[in-house]
Amino acid sequence: MASVELQNLSHSYGRGEMRRQVLQGISLRIDPGEVVLLTGPSGCGKTTLLTLIGALRTVQSGHVTVLGHRLDGAGRRQRQQVRRGIGMIFQGHNLLRCLTAEQNVQMGADLLPGLGYRARRDEARQWLRSVGLKDQMGKLPHDLSGGQKQRVAIARALAAHPRLLLADEPTAALDGATGREVVELLRRLARDQSCAVLMVTHDPRILDVADRLLQMEDGCLLPAAQ
Ligand SMILES: Nc1ncnc2c1ncn2[C@@H]1O[C@H](COP(=O)(O)OP(=O)(O)OP(=O)(O)O)[C@@H](O)[C@H]1O
């Protein structure tokens, strides 16, 4: 079963004369364990595509199946259900300000069924170590740099063992070496846990981790030159 299957997906913003189509007839399939990178100029619709696949928006036109669930025609509850299997790393981190790095990551592990408090805490610590933050576990977000906050957000998404990971420019705030490590980590996750990864990036340093490179232009998907 595909992790993501899109058929003829289109999307518009605005109404009447202000209506503007930003996605035009996109078809795409992503299989478990596959790492797909999506690139394209600013405003071409990448984030819109990611939020539709992430069940954060209502599908207007076309067919969308994510982790075996049809999203076109799905109500709020069904979309909520689908989101449980999806890890999302968007720009802006969305960390809870009053929780330490460890507690923020533990929120991700809290979604795992059947794990006791200690196991969830150990899981959170292990992911923080994996993203190079073993010395920052007790810090609050405002004591972390932008890159460190991004790594906490990544650890939180991974701690929930998602079956699909959607990431919008996950390496934008990271230096070259850390960005590379984080992307290698995402790739390992994809392989080890058969998690599909769809990542929007402008970062040319990480293009080689992809199984597949996709390019978008004006709301359309083009097969990118490898
Ligand atoms: N909520 C919204 N209402 C109206 N227009 C929107 C909305 N969100 C995005 N748009 C417009 O839709 C188009 C596609 O936006 P989107 O954010 O999907 O592009 P993007 O490729 O992710 O851009 P970037 O690389 O700059 O993040 C843009 O022209 C944007 O201004």
From TrEMBL:
Residues 4-226 form the ABC transporter domain. Keywords: ATP-binding, Nucleotide-binding, Transport. This is ABC-transporter, ATP-binding component. GO terms for molecular function: ATP binding; ATP hydrolysis activity; transmembrane transporter activity. The keyword ATP-binding applies. Gene3D superfamilies: P-loop containing nucleotide triphosphate hydrolases (3.40.50.300). PANTHER family: ABC TRANSPORTER, IMPORT ATP-BINDING PROTEIN. GO terms for cellular component: plasma membrane. SUPFAM superfamilies: P-loop containing nucleoside triphosphate hydrolases. It comes from the Bacteria. Pfam families: ABC_tran. The keyword Transcription does not apply.
